[in-house]
Automatic annotation (TrEMBL), chain B:
Pfam family of the protein (one): ABC_tran
Secretion signal, residue range per the UniProt entry: none
EC number(s) reported in the record: 7.6.2.9
Protein's name according to its UniProt entry: ABC-type quaternary amine transporter
Domain ABC transporter, chain residue ranges per copy: 23-259
Alphabetically ordered keywords of this record: ATP-binding, CBS domain, Nucleotide-binding, Transport
InterPro entries on file: AAA+_ATPase, ABC_transporter-like_ATP-bd, ABC_transporter-like_CS, CBS_dom, CBS_dom_sf, P-loop_NTPase
Keyword NADP belongs to the record: no
Amino acid sequence: MSALALPLAQLEIRSRTGGTCVSEDGFCPGWIVDNLDRYVQPLLEHIYLTVISVAVGFAISFALALLAHRSGWLTAPVTALTSVLYTIPSIALFLILVPVTGLTALTAIIALVAYTQVFLFRNIINGLVNVPEETKDAARGMGLTDRQVLWRVEMPLAVPEILAGLRIATTSTVNLATLAFFAGAGGLGAQIFQDITFRSNVVVAGGLAILLAALFDLIFLGGQRVATPWRRAAAT
Amino acid sequence: MTAPDNSSGSNATPRSTREAATLEFRGATKRYPGQEAAAVDGLSLTVPAGEILVLVGPSGCGKTTAMRMVNRMIEITEGDILLDERSVRDRAPAELRREIGYVIQQIGLFPHMTIADNVAVVPRLLGWERDRIDARVKELLELVSLGEGTGERYPSQLSGGQRQRVGVARALAADPPLMLMDEPFGAIDPINRERLQNEFLRLQGELRKTIVFVTHDIDEAIKMGDKIAVLRTGGRLAQYASPAELLMYPADEFIEDFVGADRALKRLALQRVRDIDLWRAATVRVGEPIEEARRKIADADIDMPLLVDEHGRPEGWLSERGMTGERVRAELRSRAEPTVELDDVLRDALADLIESEVHYSPVVDAEGCVAGVLSLEVISQTLQIPPDQVRTGPDLVAPGDEAVAGSEAPSR
């Protein structure tokens, strides 16, 4: 158990002496400017965890959704499974996985991937299912094969919902990754926990997590605008 | 029947180069597992190349199922369907469907593609060259009266009527020898529906495709069909006949009910004034010798002389006093109103007579000159003529409809 205690240890990141802003746990712009480089490494770890988890999560849920879309009956059980996964408390899941995969980024990524499924699978499958019946009927009636119907009609029309799923999944992953340090994967959460009583530290590390989530969201929004010009046309 | 060069139309217009196909239902039957009754039961009929077959009947009669068996959207359980004497069952569904134009009520345009891309779908599947596709798209959008610039827009930017035109253009893209149309005008408001029907008939006059047209509306069936197949519940063919035959000789009570109590009036909508034998009129001019006028009256089918001006345009019905003395005098019993035109649809002409409370009225040609007299008697005689002798015009598109294409405001 000593291995578990290590990442949770409180480290000294500042001087606690003399009645200064810093020693009084205040919000100190001067200290922040001087110590910004402390946050670079955690931020990069956080980005890495998020990008890898969402990418792997997307690949898995996309494959599952295609299978479920073709079979018809798989949708309900997979949806149920992803919901159950999501109800497992994240710290519990990290701790369950540590004995198997150790205190590594892999442990954190496995858990984070599991949590993306509930958003990604549901949105991808809904996007496909919500394509109007008459559109699919017209496509088949004009001589598109099943594969062509999927890739040329259903998938492009599902893009807005798929991107919406990616947005929620990414925001959620940025959030959950702040606990990844329980699995020994670092990230902004580790930085927060290093000195949880120091307001400057918490605000900077927490603020970076928020900014990161917002940045990813903007990227997907931009992607959606580029990928679906037909939706904008409808609004004009 | 391959119809080698029967269509001067396809030579005259570059738009349609492929010959229309013949279509034969041969005992075509659809049974769904676990259901006692067939959806379509032993349907047998032949549609000659270039004709419109309308499948009509109450809901649940299997008309859409019958249509969808043609392109194998629904598989035949028993029997067969032959396209140019070749069974549709021998062909891969996707390849077969690319040769058959397909229009459904909801149209089913692809919302994520521009209008041009929508129209280009089948040519792309067939691997056409880019230039050929571009030229074809342009040609088709013109053909269905969609203006310049429509190609770059998206379906959501068009009105219902415009979308419907795109649907027709898309179905025509690869110049298919057969078109399937399932209630194509069903979702359009009545005014635009009539307009689109007329446009479509004019288009068909040029293209001469073989068409299977499904509707539940008997009036639309009568208007659009060269032949009408009425189906009854259980997917059985109740009658297969031309519109005039159907109206004149309904096979049984079901057809009679379905066609409606006003079937005589509906039949009048199939003919124009020029299609029937009018009464000969005694047209006289002012100053004409009475003797000559009397001779004309003796030759005419109506003993009422009709006074015309120097060009032969009707002025009015001459009174007894106008026929006294040496020469015809301008003494009118009544003005020549209403006048009916040769191109008027018979039903509209009858309505004119009834509205004006007259038994007969002069008929004029395009120049306004008297061409004969239409009377209630003539119309009722027309209804006695057996349907195979009924003369209908090549199309029943009112000339006035032509200018209105594409004039609806797009939805926003």
